Amino acid sequence: MTSSSALPAHAGRHCHNVVNPFHSTHYFSPDLPAEMAELGVEDRSASYFAARGAAMGAVGPGTITATFYNFSHALVSRHVPHVWTVVAPEDVLAARLRASDTTLRRLLGDEALESAEMAEAAKLALNAAEGCTRHARPLFAAHADLPVPDAPHLAYWHAATLLREHRGDGHLMALLDAELDGLEALVTHNASGRGMSYLGVMKTRGWSQEEWTAAQERLRERGLLDAEGELTGAGVQLRKDLEHTTDRLDRAPYEHLGAEGVARLTELAAKFTTTAMEAGAFPAAMFGK
Predict the structure, then answer these.
(1) Cβ neighbours of residue 244 under 8 Å, at least 6 residues apart?
(2) Do residues 19 and 265 touch, judged by C-beta distance below 8 A?
(3) Would you state the pLDDT for residue 132?
(4) Residue 156, burial from CB neighbour count under 10 angstroms (0-12, 13-18, 19+)
(5) Side-chain-facing half-sphere of 31: CA atoms under 13 Å
(6) Hey, which residues does 225 pair with through a beta bridge?
(7) pLDDT at 4
(8) Are the CB atoms for 31 and 17 separated by under 8 Å?
(9) What single DSSP character describes residue 8?
(10) Second label for 16, Cα 20 to 30 Å away, from 158, 183, 263, 269?
């Protein structure tokens, strides 16, 4: 294992920022809802909760709310556990993999998926994931129990999933330590200009305007938001501290891979993610302010 001092500052975060979108493409693709509709699940929220939660089994709404963190429990409860009466978790996992395959083929093309660079990215990302830890990381641990797909692009997608959920589980620890609930986390991230847009939050997370306004008021009382809903200096610092804490809790996979491997994975991941974004993988209206 390479020591952390060998890694440039924020190398793990930079790598995550280009690896994670490769995983996330299927959430914004028509292929996942199409696959789920074939199984009898037509609601997009139900589809998302099932697809991301299926690795944990037929869990209840409390587990989904706890591990996903920033969704309204009322929204989760409308779909879970009912979704498991319609479709079994193992069928959802198979549908999710099919949707990811179709999505990546459309966005990147068969030549890229069958390239030596894709196989190299898969090998590097899986190597990094070997450095992840299971304790106190329920979403990562559940996905780590799944088999690695044979096809290189799906093996890379699986590894990207592991790295995403490992960092995400750690990020929730940072949010709890900062005493931000799920909606407050969304409000501050949105105010930073880097998170999901207000439209995206309202469309997908199940919160009301009244709840959003109340969260803003709580943050103003803490001195984190100003009257216009922008981050104060303290709010900006809090978001920076959150990322630094998340980096620290997520350093293990990148230390395991080492500086040279992280740099190469970042290079390859950036190429694939850029191609996917240029092909329209993510709707612009869902992000930013």
Answers:
(1) none
(2) yes
(3) 98
(4) buried
(5) 19
(6) 231
(7) 45
(8) no
(9) P
(10) 183
Residue 199: how many CB atoms within 10 A of its CB? 14
**What distance in Å separates the CA atoms of residue 45 and residue 28, rounded to the nearest whole number?**
12
- Which pLDDT does position 2 carry in this prediction? 43
Q: Nearest CA to 215 among 234, 229, 199, 195? A: 229
The DSSP symbol for 196 reads: B
Q: What is the reported pLDDT for 94?
A: 98
| Strand, coil or helix: 287 | strand
Alpha carbons 146 and 23: distance in angstroms, whole number: 15
Supply the pTM of this predicted model.
0.95
Closest CA to 157 of 108, 195, 111: 108
pLDDT along the chain (289 residues), means of 10: 67 98 97 98 97 98 98 98 98 98 98 98 98 98 98 98 98 98 97 91 95 98 97 98 98 98 98 97 76
| Residue 12 and residue 247 in contact, taking contact as beta carbons nearer than 8 Å | yes
What residue has token string 């459309």?
106
Q: What angle do CA 75, 289, 167 make, to 5 degrees?
A: 65
Q: Which residues contact 147 (CB under 8 A, 6 or more apart)?
A: none
